[in-house]
Amino acid sequence: MERYELLEHKADAYIKAYGATLEEAFENAAFAMFSIMTDITAVEEKLSYSIEIEASDILELLYNWLEHLLVQFETEYELCCRFEVKKIEKSNGALRLSANVYGEPYDAQKHPSRSEVKAVTYHKMDIGKENGRHVLKFILDL
């Protein structure tokens, strides 16, 4: 099954990520973002960390998830290659995402630069289902 596809957009990356579960779709959205940034197959699992994200709704959860990963890259210079979203659940009126993330420190010699992702946006962000699969659409500002 395909993980994601790039949709037509003039200047930015418009992504459509898929998953049999909502958790898998969130994993594939993150995979797509890092694939825009570099050759993700060159990134090894040398480090890992856990993430807890909270939001008031599902769109905000997707935004916060991707934004957290982007800020982690920008501040800690860590590229991610594998994402394990353990659960997305409602708790006390909020949505919570728990995940483990795997990757390694950025190395310009090893990790070719593709496109700089400046920001995650809410523009055209959508979450739904198509043909029994969860589908996440979002735009990354390049």
Polypeptide structure, described:
There is one protein chain. The protein is an alpha+beta fold. It is 25% helix and 47% strand. The protein has helices at 22-37, 58-76; strands spanning 4-7, 13-19, 47-55, 78-91, 94-105, 119-130, 133-141. α1 (22-37) runs parallel beside α2 (58-76). The longest helix is centred in the middle third of the chain and has 19 residues, at 58-76. It starts with a strand and ends with a strand.
Helix-strand blueprint:
Blueprint: E1 4-7, E2 13-19, H1 22-37, E3 47-55, H2 58-76, E4 78-91, E5 94-105, E6 119-130, E7 133-141
Helix pairs in contact: 1-2
Summary of the model, kept short:
This protein has 142 residues and is of the alpha+beta class. The protein has helices at 22-37, 58-76; strands at residues 4-7, 13-19, 47-55, 78-91, 94-105, 119-130, 133-141.
Quickly count the helices: 2
The largest pleated sheet is described as: 4 strands, antiparallel
Strand content: over 45%
Radius of gyration, rounded? 14 Å
**Helix percentage range:** 10-25%
What is the average per-residue confidence, as pLDDT, rounded to a whole number? 96
Termini distance? 27 Å
Would you tell me the structural class of the helices and strands?
Answer: alpha+beta
Unreliable parts: none
State the shape.
Answer: globular
Return the string of H and E elements: EEHEHEEEE
Q: If strands are numbered along the chain, what order do they take across the biggest sheet?
A: 1-2-7-6
**How many distinct beta strands?**
7
List keywords for this structure.
142 residues
